[in-house]
# Entry
Amino acid sequence: MDRIPRREFLKRAGIGVGALAASQVLPLLTRAYAQGVGTLTYGMAGGFDTLDVTATTFTRVGRIALHIIDPLVWAVAPGQYAPGLATSWTVSPDATAYTFNLRQDVKFHDGTPLTAEAVKVTFDRIVDPNTRAQTAFSFIGPYDRSEVVDRYTVRVRFKSPNASFLDGASSPYLGIISPAAVQKYGQDFGRVVFVGTGPFMLQSYTTDAEVRLIRNPNYVWGAPGFNHQGRAYLDGIVFRIVPEDATRLATLETGETLFVEDVPVTDYQRLKSSPNKVLLEIPQAGSGWSLMMNQMRSPTSDLAVRRAMMHAIDKDGLAKTVWNNVFKSACSPLTPNMFGFDSETCRKIPYNVDQARRILDEAGWRVGPDGIRVKGSERLRLEFFLQTAPQKNIEMAAFIQANAKQVGIDVNLNVSARPAYLDAVRQGRHNLQFWWETGTDPGQILRILFHSSNAGGGTNRNNYRSPEMDKLIEQIDATADQASRKQLVVKAQQRVIDDAVMVYLADPPSLYAHDRSVTGVWVDWGGNYPYFFNTRIQR
Amino acid sequence: MLQFVVRRLLFVLPTMVAASILVFLMLHLVPGDPAIIFFGDQPVTPERLEMVRHQMGLDRPLVIQYLDFVRGIPRGDLGRSIHNRTPVFEELRTRVASSATLALAAFAVAGVLGLGLGLLSALRRGTWIDAGAMLVALAGVSMPIFWLAAMLIFVFSLRLGWFPATGFGGWNRLVLPAVALGFVTAATLARLVRSSVLEVLLQPFVTTARAKGLREAVVIRRHVLKNAFIAVVTVLGLQFGTLLSGAVITETVFARPGVGKLLVDAISNKDFPIVQGAVLFIALIYTVINLVVDLSYAYLDPRIRFD
Amino acid sequence: MRTSIRASASTEAQVLGRAAPRSPWGEALLRLRRSKSALLGGIILAGLIAAAVAAPLLTPWDPLEMNAVDGLKAPSARHWLGTDILGRDLFTRILFGSRISLQTGLISVAIAILIGVPVGLSAGFYGGLTDRALMRLVDLMLTFPGILLALVVIAILGPNLLNAMLAVGISASPTFARVVRAAVLSSREQTYVEAARATGCTNARIILRHILPNTVAPIIVLGTLGVAGAIIAAAALSYLGLGTQPPTPEWGGLLSEGRNYLRVAWWMTTFPGLAIMTAVLSINLLGDGLRDALDPRLQS
# Structure
């Protein structure tokens, strides 16, 4: 028989010995990959389009940016605002003019001072078409112009009443940026550099990989609400992009990250009972997961069909099966922690299969031979358009499909790639589509979902056009008095229930997890922005 | 030999141009309007939509759009992404560095593992070692890569703590992704090495050489290894391009930036400049690799120098 | 090639004391039957195909039937391979998925053959300008890695099963073209072809009777291995969300569905992964056996 040539044998022996040696030494070396003391590594659930927070559509860019800029005001509770860069402010009675008095001790990361001019430049930039601002654009509302009253006083004017401006001003998307830097870097601002006044500065950005922030040593203007006003405790923050859920959670366990966002529901129990990890569960503000029903297309143009759908979906079952009861079932276009949430609406639309069937029977939809209802020559078939990701929405859709079949409605799932999906739903070829809205102002949420100006391809994919509803929304926007505003919000919710506009599915909590050694994490009341200004890592 | 090289080189440029035009046209066939995709689910007025479309340069005739792209190439200017306006070259640079590093590491793993297994089973043909090695190789070729990647993370990262789960920045982050990606190539290589080596071992001249009494080692070393390297070169040619841009799954699981993901996203956004730039780059790499492979063939086996 | 087969056939006949089989195909079949691994592969594959065909008879469950109460249950007597999050029986979904995966493999390869073989034949046989033009086209297609080609095809046509098959088939066709061309080139120079031409056979006749049979062997081998590759490619596409769409069960899609549940429901990824591996393994074993059987030089 052939013998292994010596060279071959030596090669293989060498590999064996090497592997043995490595297996002993490696564990010692590799623990070094945990980050340096004093740096927090944050596991992000995905990438994003640009670091320029005024142009982005991604919430996670807002999370990063909140550390690099400071907002004018901070939202401490629904409808309650505390000073940020602005020490005080006044609102005109018709809510078309806001006057802010700015702090005088603030400097941008490039050394230039914060003045009223900077606020004007920031806001003008958001509405400038060249910036292609998205989220920031919708947060700034019907912006007209800003006036520099004096060096530290600025007046922001709107074309029509905007009672929700303080909410927008508290978001990272309207954070104040350095005019000098914008002028210097032009189009590259946000890609190469990003200059604000925040407690951290941008050190580097590697696309699809990570964003590195380091502490701003000159920071002394921390907002009064936080437990200290000077420099941040952390040396820096590294935001690392780890899109695969299982991998991201694994990094929390191996120590590669100390804080992760978007904890999947399947890890909820394990993390909740874990001795050295902390699970943050914050009810998300906004509208939650819901089903939009297109009123411009048959058969969802039929009120009876929409009402039947509202009664046919077993929302508690959905929350249990798909979300492990981590998400709660929903029954209103607003989440329970929103200002003006009306719990009465829940009683109006219970899960009731028989009632659904009765509504359809009375409307003339007879059960056909295959179990699907027919009216004249038309089959009760709904086209449901959804995207290939996230996977949870496909699971939900399958569940809804089964529920609908029980009452005789045929739901056809059209899972499409994003371009084709957007094409279809913007042109209104859908009967059903999912929607998930987050936000902290009820007026904004209602406008996005129900105002006729957003119909016809915009965000109101219900294509719901009701003059009474439009008037209500505009009133809400114009009313600064909290009590009357609340009454209007309640009325709006009741109205959309009566008109059977959408099916409200689930109220999600924002789920974050971090190592027990991380202390002092602050999250806004809406659950969207974790803030590490007060954070320390105890070793 | 020189004539061979020159003829091949002459074809590189027209091939790249053809590939570039082909991709440009195909991308226009993809349904969807880049401006609408850009706005996604945000509200937008028709005027804003038109303005963005104009900014993206989509209202110009197709020919002008293509020529604009070509014009910038000699300067190294591949234009800017229409989706987020970053320079295409910048977007490519980091991704390419990351993908290339991974591809090289994976190939190193594949080379060592594949050569080892293949030679072992060829020299021990017919025994249990042969069967065992080939079974491992077959398993490698048949295994879904995501599964392997997830298992590697579970065992080596979570349970044993030897290597980090995410792979960016530092050699130890390369190990797990390289093994995951390289294992499949190793399996293909092992099988090919085995059959190439066997092909040589059963040739008459080997029997003749043995009959003449030449030492085992001399015979094997000279011919067998050369055949084995031909196999390596073949697999390099076939797999490197795939390793470079097809490693999307591995890069996603291990959280590494990559050319594959860049392409998938760019196609989804109908981001013409990025797709054009990335495809141009990939085509270039592929063509160069093919050229290197063909040249190696011609060098290693004189019989192949026809065309 | 023909002469050497014949010679070995008679040698074998002398050794075995049997009458020598006349056709090279019978020869090959004999060698195939004696290869243990090929036999194993063939048996497993036959079993898979039988299971796929008889799927509804082998399980009481419906692949799309949801049962919320039974969500994420481990393998048990009731659900042999466990359930997914919506309570659907995994064994049933894998069984019905085998239909789709096997079909996908076969049809993708069929498409690749339909495109690649005529191209390779024409290029090899006619030579000259035709050859150069067609091979440039093939080279052009080969400048794109397979997955990229598949991606673009699916982006244009939309993500569904049929388009996935088309995409995989198109990206595999250049290889078939090349292999067929090589086989044609080697057989074109044989003397019997010269003879046929001299006696006035038409080109078509020459191709059909003399060239084509010599290409069948490599096509069979490449095709068999191609089916395995196509199954994996289609699974990868479904995993990326670009192939079959839910709730259709397809092995790659099942893997994708299970990826987020690795720690709480290991069965959701393990069994579809094993299914892919088994199918691909058996096809590869068979393909290897076929290659050895059809290549006379590897007798020992």
Observations:
- Chain A touches chain C through 25 residues (CB under 8 Å).
